[in-house]
Every structure is written in structure tokens, then in C-alpha cells.
Amino acid sequence: MYEKLIVVTRKTRLQGLIERFNTRAQAKFYLEHAGLDFGDYAREDDTYRQALEALEAQLELGLPVQRLDRALLSTYRFGPGDLIVAAGQDGLVANTAKYLGAQPLIGVNPDPARFDGALLPFSVGQARAAVTRTLEGTMPIAEVTLARAQTSDGQTLLAFNDLFIGETTHQSAHYRLQVVRGGEQKETKVKPAAGPERQSSSGVIVSTGAGSTGWLSSVRTMAERVGAFFGRPSIEPLEMAWNDPRLFYVVREPFVSKHSQATQVVGWLAPTAELQIESLMPQSGTIFSDGMEADCLRFTSGMTVRIGPAPQRARLVVSQPQVERGVDPRTGRRLTKTAPPQVRAACHVDGAFPVR
After folding, report:
1. Residues contacting 8, CB < 8 A, separation 6+
2. Reported pTM
3. Overall average pLDDT of the 235-247 stretch
4. Do 39 and 99 contact (CB within 8 A), yes or no?
5. Rounded-to-integer distance, Cα 114 and Cα 41, Å
6. Can you give the pLDDT at residue 323?
7. Which band of pLDDT confidence, cut at 50, 70 and 90, is reported for residue 318?
8. Chain centroid, CA 19 distance in Å
9. 197: nearest Cα among 261, 243, 104, 120
């Protein structure tokens, strides 16, 4: 039984500059002095403000409505009676979902002309119907695999898109890395796929299926362009559904020397596997998720971290897509290959998402 609606928001670029320079006029002077278009910043801010006002009018359903800024997500305690609506860029959905547990999240696109909306299936005008059906328990839900990092001192961090393990500065990250395979019956039965490898790099990215089109795709694009320059064949895009139980890791710019190797730099993490990393960074080692560097875990020399799929999943409210060959019925994302049988079987005969 829901008791409150929470609209998660994020400061616009102009709001950030006004906080920095104290007034709108000073922010305008700064942008124009730098040769930038103040009008674009102002239009974005006006559109977002108007969209939030319209959204709150749409959400007058007899429940209290509270705004919550993205900066407060890591410290806010969501209650079981809260229904959450994220209105902003796609990244705002990723930033919010990992803090909600099993509660559903509704993504609303406040500016379709500016934001891609891959995680924002509803417009402001569709928000009332989406929220109403969610309150009634009749809206389809897509489950999204999360990544989890657990450090040796008891800290835990979840990621919707990806985890980053490395340095807070532009210095090379130093660590020992190994993939540990899990046993099929008990998670305690683990064995290394290879011994720990000492590495020096720009850090490690561990991506979920939802994040496979984000930072991970940028790494693939860079590798492909470098390879193409030297006449190497193209690298096919990595395709992962949101509910893919695996993770994918890649080491950024590994450096080979007398003291560092680069043989374990890319690969899959099966549902029972773990990526184990031991920090060799005396002061500025860090772990953060989904681009939120402020919400991070300290990761300095002597500490270890175990990374694998999280036991919990994010739950996104989605529009009802047409189920057809080559479309994942749990996410609506088009695939070049037919979805696995166990995923196809989860949908109803009439082509609707399974309601959970």
C-alpha cells in the first residue's frame, strides 16, 4: 500500500552554475565570456522547471508528493510506502534504482528533444496513467541485474550500470586481480580461473546488462577505432539484456612492464563467479558506481573487494512492448538474436509483460 509519491530530480546545468556564481547574471556573464550559448542553458532550465510543474499536477492522485534531489539519494531512507518517479536524464534512473531495493521505479522523460530516454519510457503526459496502474499493481515490471562490490572492511556498493575500481586522480591504478569461479551447488565452492595478476592501468570497469550500452560501449568503440586504424577487423557490439545474470569486466589501458601484466583484462563474470581485486594504492584508491564519484568506497592498500551480480534486482516500470522475434520480452530491447527460451517463456500468451 503506497502512502507517498517521491519525484527524484536533478539540478540543471544552469542551476549548478548559479550555485557556483551566486546569481543568474553572473552565470550568464561566465558562459558568454567563455563563448558559450547562455540561451541553451536557459531553455534547458525552463523546460525542466515547466515539466516538473506539469508532472506534479499530473500526480495529484490523493497522495502527498515530495521532491528529492539526486544529491540526497545516498542518505535518504526510502520507506515501503514510497512510490518513486525519476524525472530527468537516463542517468537519474540508474542513480536512483540501486537505492530502492524491490520497490518499482517509474522513469519520466521531461525533455524528449534533449534526452534519449532509454530508461525513461513515459512522457509527462503519460505519467498519471503509469503511476495509477502501478498503484493498482497492473503495470509491467522489468527486472534489471545489479552489480555488487563488497570490501574486506564490510562496505557494500551496488551499481545499476557499472562499477569503477581505480584511482581518484589520473595516476595509474595498481592492484592484483583474479576471477574466481563459483561452484554450481554452493557459493563457498570457489576456485581461481587463474592466479592473481598484478596490473597497472587506468582502472577496472565492471558492467551490467543495463550498462553495456554506456561506459562499456565507449571502451569497445575506442578499441575498435584503434584496431581499425591498424587494419584489424571490426569488434561487434556487446549485446546484453537488462536481466542478463552475468556481468562483464574490462581493464582500461593496461600497462605491461617488469612489475605488471595484462593477460586478465576482459571477460564475463558468471552468476556464481567473482572478480577479486586487492588494492596496492596507498592513499587514493576508490570504488564508485554509475558515475557518482561522491558516493564511493575507500579502497587503499591492503584492502580487497569482491565483485559479482547482486542478489537483488532493480525493478523498472515499463510500457507494454509488442513481443516478437528478436525482442527481449522482459525489457523490450531489440536483439539481433532470438531471446533465450527461459526468457521468452516468462511472457504471457497475449504478448504482455509478466506482472510481478
Report:
1. 68, 69, 70, 73, 84, 85, 86, 87, 88, 92, 96
2. 0.82
3. 89
4. no
5. 12
6. 44
7. very high
8. 26
9. 261
- Torsion of Cα atoms, 166 then 91 then 157 then 3, to 10°: 170
Q: How does pLDDT run across 57-98, given as a tens digit for each residue?
A: 999 999 999 999 999 998 999 999 999 999 999 999 999 999
Q: Are 117 and 315 in contact (CB under 8 A)?
A: no
For β-strands 190-192 and 173-182, DSSP reports them as: antiparallel
Between CA 87 and CA 124 the distance in angstroms is: 9
Tens digit of each residue's pLDDT (9 = 90 or more) over 260-309: 999 999 999 999 999 999 999 999 999 999 988 888 999 999 999 999 99
Q: How far apart are the first and last CA of the chain?
A: 15
Residue with cell 538474436: 337
Helix (H, G, I), strand (E, B) or coil at 84: strand
Q: What share of the chain is helix, strand, coil (3-state, %, to 5)?
A: 25, 30, 45
Taken in order of first residue, the domains within the chain and their CATH numbers are: 4-139 (3.40.50), 146-311 (2.60.200.30)
CA dist 331 and 323 (Å) reads 10
The string of pLDDT tens digits covering residues 320-342 is 653 444 444 344 444 544 443 33
Amino acid identity at 303: M
**Distance from C-alpha of 131 to C-alpha of 263, rounded to nearest angstrom:** 49
Q: Which helix (H) or strand (E) holds 265?
A: none
Whole-number pLDDT of residue 187: 41
Q: Could you tell me if 107 and 121 are in contact, meaning their C-beta atoms sit under 8 angstroms apart?
A: yes
The pLDDT of residue 239: 82
Long-range contacts of 213-220 (CB under 8 A, 24+ apart): 213/118, 214/161, 214/162, 215/161, 215/162, 216/162, 216/248, 216/250, 219/250, 219/252
- Please list, residue by residue across 60-86, b when 16 or more beta carbons sit within 10 angstroms of its beta carbon and e when fewer do: eeebebeebebeebeeeebeeebbbbb
Strand duo 156-159 + 141-151: pairing: antiparallel
Residues in the chain: 356
Residue 319 has a pLDDT of 87
